[in-house]
Structures are given as C-alpha cells and as structure tokens.
Amino acid sequence: MNPRAWTFLSRRSPYSNAAWEKAVLQSSQRQEGGQMTVLVTGAAGFVGSHVSLALKKRGDGVVGLDNFNDYYPVELKRARASNLEQAGIFIVEGDLNDQNLLMKLFKLVHFTHILHLAAQAGVRYAVKNPLAYVHSNVGGFVTLLEQCKNSQPQPAIVYASSSSVYGLNSKVPFSEDDRTDHPASLYAATKKADEVLAHTYNHIYGLSITALRFFTVYGPWGRPDMAYFSFTRNIVEGKPITIFQGPHGEELARDFTFIDDIVKGCVASLDTALPSTGSGGKKHKKAQFRIYNLGNTQPVKVGDFVSILEKHLKKKAIRNIIPMPSTGDVMFTHANVTRAKHDLGYNPSTDLSTGLHIFVKWYKSYYKEGAGHEDMLKGYKPY
Ligand SMILES: NC(=O)c1ccc[n+]([C@@H]2O[C@H](COP(=O)([O-])OP(=O)(O)OC[C@H]3O[C@@H](n4cnc5c(N)ncnc54)[C@H](O)[C@@H]3O)[C@@H](O)[C@H]2O)c1
Ligand SMILES: O=C(O)[C@H]1O[C@H](OP(=O)(O)OP(=O)(O)OC[C@H]2O[C@@H](n3ccc(=O)[nH]c3=O)[C@H](O)[C@@H]2O)[C@H](O)[C@@H](O)[C@@H]1O
Known about the structure:
One of its GO terms (molecular function) is UDP-glucuronate 4-epimerase activity. Pfam families: Epimerase (PF01370). By secondary structure, this protein is α/β, with parallel strands linked by helices. It has a domain at 3-215 and 259-294 and 334-349: NAD(P)-binding Rossmann-like Domain (Rossmann fold, 3-Layer(aba) Sandwich). Helix content is 41%, strand content 16%. The chain has helices at 6-11, 18-28, 46-57, 74-86, 99-108, 125-128, 130-150, 186-205, 227-237, 259-272, 302-313, 338-344, 352-367, and strands spanning 37-41, 61-66, 90-93, 113-116, 156-162, 209-214, 217-218, 240-245, 253-254, 257-258, 278-279, 282-283, 289-294, 300-301, 318-323. The longest helix is centred in the middle third of the chain and has 21 residues, at 130-150. The relative contact order is 0.13. The structure holds nicotinamide-adenine-dinucleotide and uridine-5'-diphosphate-glucuronic acid (UGA). Uridine-5'-diphosphate-glucuronic acid (UGA) is lined by residues 121-123, 162-164, 214-216, 226-228, 242-244, 252, 254, 302, 329.
C-alpha cells in the first residue's frame, strides 16, 4: 500500500478495518538490519517523530500511536506525521486510554519494544488543566502497562520521565539517586508517579522498564509551547518576551539538551534493554529496571540563552523581566549523566549555540519568516 494513502486512513477511527490492519502490519515490518519491532507512543510529537525516523532508518519496524490533541497546533503534528508516512511509518490515531485499540494493536503485531513518549507535557500548563496530565500521564500509562503485562511475550519498555522529578532538589548536578519526592508542579508529580508505577509493574509482573529523565529538549520540529520556540517567534515578530526571575532577582537556568543527543540516548536504551521476564501476567524472575538522566550537563541562564538566540536571529529581543509566576518552575536543572555514559555510551555532543543555530535555520525555512506563522500559538495561554 502506498504510504500516501495513510493520512486519510489514520484519521479514520474504526480500527477493525482491513486497510487499517494492512497499514499497521506494513509499518511494523523490519527491513534489512532491523532488530526490533517498536511501538512509539507520541510519534507525532517532537521527540517521538525524531526517534521514530531514526529507528526506521536503521531497519527497525516502527508503528506510531498518537491522539493528535490540540495542546499546541495540530498542524505541526500533522506535518511531522507526514514526514513519518513518507518514511513508511504509519501512525495509529487514538488515545492511550483506549483499551480496545491497544488490545487490537498488540494482537496484530508482536512488539518487541515500546518507546513510550506520549504524555501531556509542559510544566506551567498543569495549573490550567491538571486533569489532562492525570488522563494521559497516569491513566494512559497504566492502560499501556496493563496491556504490556498481559502480552505474551511481554515487550521491553523505555519511556520518558523528566528532569522535573528532581523538583526542589538543590544538590547539583542532579544524580539518579537524589531525592525525587518534592515535586514543584503537578506535571512533575505525574512523572514521578510514572516512575513509581513503573517500578510496581516491574516488581509484580517482570516488565523490563527503563525511565529516561530528559532535560529541557530543543531542536527542529520542536514544541511551540517551549521557551526557545515561543521566544524565537516573538523576536522575529518584534514582540516582547517574558523572562522569569527568582524571588531575589536570581536568573533561572536550564540544562538545555539538543534533540539529536536525546535520540541517541533513546535508541541506546532500546538497544540495551533486556527482555521482560513475565508471561500471562506473572513474573518468572527479576526483570531489568533502570533510570537515566539524559541532559547536556552544561546549564545556561535563560538570559544568556536569549542572547544566543538573538545572535542567530540577528535581532534583539524586547526583554520583559518579571517575577516567576507560581506555576511550578524550578530555579535550575543540571544533569549528571555518568550512569548513562557508562551503560548507554551516551555522550551529549551539541552545545547550545550550535543547536540553536540548527533550530533557527529550521524555524525560518518552516515558517518562511514573516508569513504563515500567525496562528502558531493560537489559543495557547499556559499561565
Ligand atoms: N521536550 C522536553 O523538553 C521534555 C523534557 C522532559 C520530558 N519530556 C517528555 O518526553 C515526552 C515527549 O515530549 P515531547 O516534547 O515530544 O512532547 P509532545 O507534546 O511534542 O509529544 C507528545 C505526544 O503525545 C501525544 N499524546 C498526548 N497524550 C496522549 C494520549 N493520551 N494518547 C495518545 N497520544 C497522546 C500528543 O499528541 C503529542 O503528539 C513526553 O513524555 C514529555 O513529558 C519532554
Ligand atoms: O526538562 C524537563 O523535564 C521539562 O523541560 C521543559 O520544561 P522547561 O524547562 O520549563 O522548558 P521551557 O518551557 O522551554 O522553559 C525554559 C526556561 O525558560 C523559562 N521561561 C519560560 C517561558 C517564559 O515565558 N519565560 C521564561 O523565562 C522557564 O522558567 C525555564 O527556566 C518541557 O516543557 C517539559 O515538558 C519537560 O518535562
């Protein structure tokens, strides 16, 4: 079947249809060099679209799942999906909480691995819409874990946690063994809940699970709700940007991490994941359980990050500096990646200036500066 026909197909919900099944099976086929068959949830998202393409490129079978929600403009998700379709990846349009859909999918394809990236992301939006986080990050995750636990054989799971689980941790850099029991946002609380739920399913059912704590990821085809993206838009349009500062005028800092490094970390995690050890809902022996930081290890103050953006955009920002609203931000993040380096060969190699240069180039070509991006953040007001 020609993947060009998939756009239409994936938007039609009835998954009991023969053409839909054919598309799923075709997309799941491994090519030469491929070792695994992966279900990527959140495949129309920023990170999911990049990793799906990387897996497909080396021959793995890849099937996507995404509900194409309108947290940020759906047009961008459709454009990413179209890139994936061209590469031969079918994205099933549906919700993680749809048990019947998951059952049908897992019956059709024997997934060796799940790369679970679908979630309600964004720290500040949780103040506005907390239940969206509970729905996708808690309910959706448990629905997926239930399906995986019941599968025979069970797949190995690699999924996205978040640097936000470190919450109010003040010990730097953040190490995987540091405390994560004082979250600063509801988003972080749901990501922490995921780590605890993951441990439970690993313990009772023998699911092999790896949690990846990503640190503020940026890059081409990125997320319009994130600062690097919305700041770029405002600078291009000559509109002010809002920069948060701490209660005593301190600058916030983030360990901004380029998408290509995150993709390498995800792929290496899949490659090193051991098989699950259970069957029929029962554990036979202890299964692998891992947690890794995937950051850049070089935090940058938000003001300095804006200066780098200005340099690449060749335009000054109008900076509006305000006290940080009480919507869940933390003062700084900083990853210790020793464990990921040792176990995964993870070695972040893109510095912020190089990465932002690549992002700005993409942004300008995608939105053709001055035209077509007026609606990009339409309706988006996170705080
Ligand atoms: N980008 C970052 O800086 C960052 C940092 C830390 C952690 N993370 C985590 O990494 C993962 C990927 O993030 P991203 O930046 O690509 O976000 P994204 O919003 O671009 O991608 C998530 C995708 O999941 C889909 N989705 C959401 N809820 C769903 C549901 N219930 N059923 C099916 N699909 C659903 C969305 O439509 C979206 O396309 C998320 O789990 C996020 O929390 C991201
Ligand atoms: O690492 C993570 O775990 C998190 O990284 C990002 O969250 P955040 O670091 O808040 O990323 P941005 O929204 O891009 O903000 C970057 C920095 O700019 C600041 N900011 C943001 C927006 C704004 O208008 N002004 C401003 O100063 C934020 O406080 C933060 O310090 C993602 O949005 C989360 O989904 C993810 O889980």
